[in-house]
């Protein structure tokens, strides 16, 4: 009796662009769940189903992945701000729009908080250049839109948007501190302190200080004398006598 085997379905091969998008999606989900600082390159590779060496073929380091995500999230934020500024009627509305849209994007604020500390350091020059160009383009578009609805100039609008980005990255770690580690948690003593040893020579000796027992008193006095600093002797100076040091003869 012969058994027929079902033909295997050929595995769909993804293009390089599809691989990059899958890596970015996995890194975005991991960062949204546990924070950027807690994501490793191995975790991203495991989520995508690739080896770390294959991840490096598309992105050199973990920092390059999140630097690319910072540019993407920044572009989405800029588009949302420009859309909401259509209903703005002044500088106060523009400031409120910048603050509210940043508050709605926790991942972007988390990425901004790591820019100066890690994301802009362990990356290649082309990746850093591409991020800088994207940021400049976003700020220019925001500055132009802010100038249309307020009495600010385009350069002042860019500075306002830049200040909002900087404050978002600065305040996010303070509003979302990491959990305390076990090593930094103070140890609380649960057991009672050891009881004072009673004197083997007298029952009343353990409740008095200095000890009432002669033997313990001698030991107590010896310990005090050992730790007591030696007395300092001061030389007495008589002010009714002339100084004894030799004076230098006057020059001839």
- Provide the helix percentage: 55-70%
Question: Oligomeric status of the shown chains?
Answer: single chain
Mean pLDDT: 79
The strand count comes to 0
- Helix segment count? 10
Structural class: mainly alpha
Low-confidence stretches: none
What is the class of the domain at 62-175 in the CATH system?
Mainly Alpha
Described by the principal axes of the CA atoms, the overall outline is extended
What Rg do the Cα atoms give? 37 Å
Structure commentary:
The protein is an all-alpha fold. It has a domain at 62-175: Tetracycline Repressor, domain 2 (Orthogonal Bundle). Helix content is 57%, strand content 0%. It is built from 10 helices and no strands. Helix 1 packs across helix 2 and helix 4 (62-84) packs across helix 6 (106-113). The longest helix is centred in the middle third of the chain and has 25 residues, at 125-149. The radius of gyration is 37 Å and the shape is extended. The protein starts with 15 loop residues before the first helix and ends in a 25-residue tail after the last helix. The model has no long low-confidence stretch (mean pLDDT 79).
Short structural description:
Helices cover about 55% and strands about 0% of the residues.
Chain-wise SSE layout:
Layout: H1 16-34, H2 41-48, H3 52-58, H4 62-84, H5 91-103, H6 106-113, H7 115-119, H8 125-149, H9 154-175, H10 214-227
Helix pairs in contact: 1-2, 1-4, 4-5, 4-6, 4-8, 5-9, 6-9, 8-9
């Amino acid at each position: 009796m012969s058994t027929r085997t079902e033909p295997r379905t050929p595995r769909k091969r993804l293009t390089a662009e599809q691989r990059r998008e899958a890596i970015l999606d996995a890194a975005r989900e991991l960062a949204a769940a546990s924070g950027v600082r807690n994501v490793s390159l191995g975790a991203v590779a495991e989520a995508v189903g690739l080896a770390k060496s294959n991840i490096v073929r598309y992105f050199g380091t973990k920092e390059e992945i999140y630097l690319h995500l910072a540019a993407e999230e920044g572009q989405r934020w800029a588009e949302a701000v420009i859309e909401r500024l259509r209903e703005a009627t002044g500088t106060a509305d523009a400031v409120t729009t910048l603050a509210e849209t940043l508050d709605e994007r926790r991942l972007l604020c988390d990425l901004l908080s790591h820019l100066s500390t890690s994301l802009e350091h362990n990356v290649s020059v082309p990746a850093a250049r591409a991020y800088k160009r994207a940021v400049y383009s976003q700020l220019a578009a925001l500055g132009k839109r802010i100038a249309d609805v307020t009495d600010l100039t385009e350069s002042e609008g860019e500075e306002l948007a830049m200040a909002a980005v900087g404050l978002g990255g600065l305040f996010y770690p303070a509003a979302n501190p990491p959990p305390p580690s076990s090593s930094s948690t103070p140890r609380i003593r649960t057991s009672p302190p050891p009881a004072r040893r009673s004197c083997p020579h007298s029952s009343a000796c353990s409740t008095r200080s200095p000890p009432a027992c002669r033997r313990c008193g001698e030991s107590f006095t010896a310990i005090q004398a050992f730790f007591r600093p030696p007395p300092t002797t001061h030389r007495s100076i008589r002010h009714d006598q002339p100084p004894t040091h030799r004076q230098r003869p006057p020059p001839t």
